[in-house]
Amino acid sequence: MTKWKKDCFIIELKLLIDTWQKVILLKRFEIARTLYNTTLSYAVKQYTFMQKSKHYRKQLRCYQKAKKTNDSKELKQTAKELNNIRQSFGLSEYQLHARTICHSFKNN
Question: Helix or strand or coil: residue 23?
Answer without folding.
Answer: helix
